[in-house]
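Appendix C: a fully annotated inverse folding record. The material below is reproduced so that readers can follow the format used throughout the book. The structure is listed first as tokens, followed by the designed sequence.
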């Protein structure tokens, strides 16, 4: 793939807000990885040469390498879910997936055998859909094939309905030290409406048990703006959750995209419901801050810095590599590639049977891509530190992005201090639109090819247009 138009940045930057709004919607509609920050976007990825295993050999010993495992099965598909997972109840199918996962790990093992692993993240789907024995097997495979550092963060995502005391004890025994419990809501009507099987009382009880067992970090995921959630039921759920003293609380606003069952069945959120979602987020912000939580850099609300998801934080603040195993798993090789495995279990298994890496598509990375990723990911959290940019890339952020910064400064969207570049946006939609001014023209052009023919005016967008965007 040819990268970076030679003429990029020669002319003045024009107002492309409306185009970027449309692109944002298209990009999120097609992205099943769940990433809100992905550069270049998944939409622009293509077939890759089969040289990937060896690329892993080249990563530097300083790279804080992480391992991501994707378990793409759930007992039920929640209507709000934007991650790649499928409903599967047949235990034999689920257990046989483990065999292929192990084979995939063995394909890469020799290239990674001597590298120290800084973080493990087992996500999905529902990793705890495995019964005790396969869950123990998965953890043994990982421990026996990789060299985890002594202080490695070992995370797993769990759902209350797939968890019990025995599984918690097993996770503890295998060194899991960070749990992410997908509570989402404690309102029975909401859970029924969104197709989530858990019992709210059981969920709260498990939260208490998990805390009692002494996992280093217990992170709770809650959603704001789900169908049938009211402001008072949301508040009650948050209060009950906080009584169990979690270390971190992640509030996910419900943004339905075409990929979700919610939209596939013809539903949409009214403006009124979106405003209610905003109110829930504001209420959560106020409540969490009053209980000693604050937004942690590159992550959610927490009390301590070490509660953060280290793999995600390393991927941003150190541009670290992580290798994803399993159907739909994403990988990043610093300075080289981003790629994703087939997000179809049958295709994934068929590749492994043929002894080829199960990669669907990817993109070669340039240094500028990594810079854009870093800058836009930092701005998602409000600002980028000039000294950090210099530390990572050996260049000045103000020189590399001089034109883009001049344009956005003129519009009052960013401002510069001696230490940082700060973005001033009122919602995530504005951030997603304005951060695209840093994207390369070639990437924008490739994204545009995926859009229907549109009359794209060169105009600014209103606050209402970003507030009600479909992300
Ligand atoms: S349990 Fe989690 S991964 Fe599975 S469908 Fe629900 S939200 Fe998605």
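Designed amino acids, in order:
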């Amino acid at each position: 793939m040819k990268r970076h138009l030679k003429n990029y940045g020669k002319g003045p930057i024009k107002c492309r807000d409306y185009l970027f709004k449309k692109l944002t919607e298209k990009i999120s509609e097609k992205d099943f990885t769940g990433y809100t920050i992905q550069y270049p976007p998944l939409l622009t990825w293509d077939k890759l040469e089969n040289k990937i295993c060896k690329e892993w050999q080249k990563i530097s010993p300083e790279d804080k390498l992480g391992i991501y495992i994707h378990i793409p099965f759930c007992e039920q598909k929640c209507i709000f879910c934007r991650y790649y997972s499928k409903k599967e109840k047949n235990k034999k199918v689920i257990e046989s997936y483990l065999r292929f996962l192990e084979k995939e790990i063995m394909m890469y093992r020799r290239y990674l055998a001597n590298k120290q692993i800084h973080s493990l993240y087992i996500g999905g789907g529902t990793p705890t859909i495995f019964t005790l024995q396969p869950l123990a097997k998965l953890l043994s495979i990982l421990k026996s094939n990789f060299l985890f550092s002594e202080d490695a963060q070992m995370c797993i995502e769990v759902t209350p309905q797939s968890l019990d005391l025995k599984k918690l004890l097993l996770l503890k025994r295998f060194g899991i030290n960070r749990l992410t419990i997908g509570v989402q809501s404690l309102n029975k009507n909401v859970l029924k409406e969104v197709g989530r099987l858990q019992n709210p009382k059981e969920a709260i009880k498990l939260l208490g048990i998990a805390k009692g067992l002494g996992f280093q970090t217990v992170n709770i995921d809650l959603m704001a703006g789900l169908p049938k959630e009211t402001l008072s039921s949301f508040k009650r759920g948050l209060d009950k959750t906080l009584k169990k003293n979690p270390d971190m609380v992640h509030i996910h606003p419900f943004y339905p995209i075409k990929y979700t069952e919610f939209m596939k069945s013809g539903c949409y959120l009214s403006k009124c419901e979106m405003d209610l979602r905003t109110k829930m987020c504001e209420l959560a912000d106020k409540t969490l801050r009053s209980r000693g939580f604050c937004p942690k850099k590159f992550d959610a609300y927490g009390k301590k810095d070490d509660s953060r998801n280290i793999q995600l934080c390393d991927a941003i603040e150190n541009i670290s590599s992580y290798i994803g195993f399993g159907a739909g798993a994403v990988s990043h090789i610093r300075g080289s590639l981003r790629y994703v495995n087939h997000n179809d279990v049958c295709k994934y298994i068929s590749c492994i049977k043929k002894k080829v890496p199960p990669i669907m598509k990817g993109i070669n990375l340039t240094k500028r891509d990594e810079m854009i990723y870093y800058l836009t990911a930092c701005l998602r959290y409000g600002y980028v530190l000039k000294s950090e940019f210099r530390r990572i890339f050996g260049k000045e952020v103000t020189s590399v992005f001089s034109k883009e910064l001049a344009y956005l400064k003129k519009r009052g969207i960013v401002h510069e201090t001696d230490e940082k570049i700060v973005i001033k946006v009122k919602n995530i939609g504005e951030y997603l639109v304005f951060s695209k001014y840093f994207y390369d023209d070639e990437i924008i052009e490739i994204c545009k090819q995926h859009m229907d023919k549109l009359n794209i005016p060169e105009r600014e967008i209103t606050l209402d247009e970003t507030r009600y965007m479909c992300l």
